[in-house]
């Protein structure tokens, strides 16, 4: 049973769409992992007071819930990056986003975000295959 050109084209389009969606999902998962559990509505100690700017504590007087293992690793990785490395990651991201905007490919933006997150985490930066 041979497939027609139209069927092969449709199959190719579906494969490209699937790859693009997988990239987008990976980028969102990474963004959520890096975001941690920030909650802007959580009360904070007012500035100018001892401990000002920190999260308001629970009943035991602590400054809030202890971070989970993943949040602790992300926080440690975020602290290790130097200002120069962070600036380089910003330059890479601006260049990638400008390129993706020029080629008008939504999956490219997802991959660019993934590259930015990897750069900030100090991991090898994946290629931008567009």
Break the fold down into its secondary structure elements and pairings.
Elements: H1 5-35, H2 69-80, H3 83-103, H4 106-121
Helix pairs in contact: 1-4, 3-4
Would you give an account of this structure?
The protein has 130 residues and is an all-alpha fold. The protein has helices at 5-35, 69-80, 83-103, 106-121. The protein starts with a helix and ends in a 9-residue tail after the last helix. Residues 59-64 have low confidence and may be disordered.
What is this entry, summarized?
With 130 residues, the chain is mainly alpha-helical.
Total number of helical segments?
4
Shape: elongated
Distance between the termini: 33 Å
Query: What percent of residues adopt helix (DSSP H or I)?
Result: 55-70%
Let me know the average pLDDT.
76
Radius of gyration from the CA trace? 21 Å
Range of strand content? under 5%
Quantity of strands, as a count: 0
Largest sheet: none
Poorly predicted regions are: 59-64
Order of helices and strands: HHHH
Backbone structural class: mainly alpha
């Amino acid at each position: 049973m041979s497939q027609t050109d139209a069927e092969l084209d449709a199959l190719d389009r579906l494969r490209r769409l699937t790859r693009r969606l997988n990239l987008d999902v990976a980028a969102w998962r990474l963004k959520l992992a890096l975001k941690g559990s920030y909650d802007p509505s959580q009360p904070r100690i007012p500035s100018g007071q001892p401990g000002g700017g920190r999260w308001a504590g629970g009943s035991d007087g602590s400054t809030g819930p202890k971070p989970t293992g993943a949040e602790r690793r992300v926080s440690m990785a975020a602290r290790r990056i130097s200002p120069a490395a962070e600036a380089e990651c910003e330059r890479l991201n601006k260049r990638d986003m400008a390129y993706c905007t020029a080629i008008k490919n939504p999956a490219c933006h997802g991959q660019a975000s993934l590259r930015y997150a990897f750069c900030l985490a100090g991991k090898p930066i994946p290629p931008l295959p567009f």
